[in-house]
Amino acid sequence: MSQQFENVTCTRCGGTGKYSWNRIELDRCRKCTGCGWCFTKRGQAAWEYYLASQNVLASELEAGMFIWDTIKNNRWVRIESVKASEAIWNDRAIPTMEIKTSRGTHCIFQENTVRAIKNEEQRKQQMIEAFEYQATLTKTGKPAK
Ligand SMILES: [Zn+2]
């Protein structure tokens, strides 16, 4: 049995991901954003727990780690190199990290956090921990007392 973040078929579109057409969303269901399912409160809380475990300070990024690329594709991209630098902003020098990936070079403030992992093994472990956390939650998404 493979574990997953607890979810239910979308009650608005019945799992089709489609709903009545409008100019902005076309026929995409607003409730599930077209994927046909929604997290339960428990699944949502566990998913947020999982994402939080991948919050990494930009200053701690290293070559060989992977960052979540939301710019073009939602996928992990490997960091090829990292260079500490600084940006001048409002006459102040702000420490930054220049992150080079196959998608180009990104400049991130060192104090910012990004979604990153060391490797797939770490990601799997984070997922296991999130499922363990999910198992401790009540239906309302709060830890059982
Ligand atoms: Zn839906």
Classified by CATH, the class of the largest domain is Mainly Beta
Work out the strand percent: 35-45%
- The number of distinct structural domains comes to 2
Helix content: 10-25%
Enumerate the strands of the largest sheet in spatial order, edge to edge or round the barrel: 5-10-6-7-8-9
Radius of gyration: 19 Å
Query: What is the rounded distance between the termini?
Result: 27 Å
Structural class per helix/strand content?
A: alpha+beta
Mean pLDDT: 92
In the CATH hierarchy, what is the architecture of the largest domain at level 2?
A: Roll
Uncertain stretches of 5 or more adjacent residues: none
The third-level CATH topology of the largest domain is SH3 type barrels
- What compounds sit in this structure? zinc ion
Tally of separate helices: 2
| Shape label | globular
The largest pleated sheet is described as: 6 strands, antiparallel
Q: Give the number of DSSP strands.
A: 10
**What order do the helices and strands follow?**
EEEEHEEEEEEH
Can you give a write-up of this model?
- The chain is of the alpha+beta class and 145 residues long.
- The protein has two domains: 1-39, no CATH class; 41-137, SH3 type barrels (Roll), CATH 2.30.30.
- The protein is built from two helices and ten strands; from the N terminus they run ββββαββββββα.
- The strands form three sheets. Strands 5-10-6-7-8-9 form a six-stranded antiparallel beta sheet. Strands 1-4 form a two-stranded antiparallel sheet.
- Helix 1 packs antiparallel against helix 2.
- 13% of the residues are buried.
- The mean pLDDT is 92.
- Residues 10, 12-13, 17, 29, 31-32, 36 line the site of zinc ion (ZN).
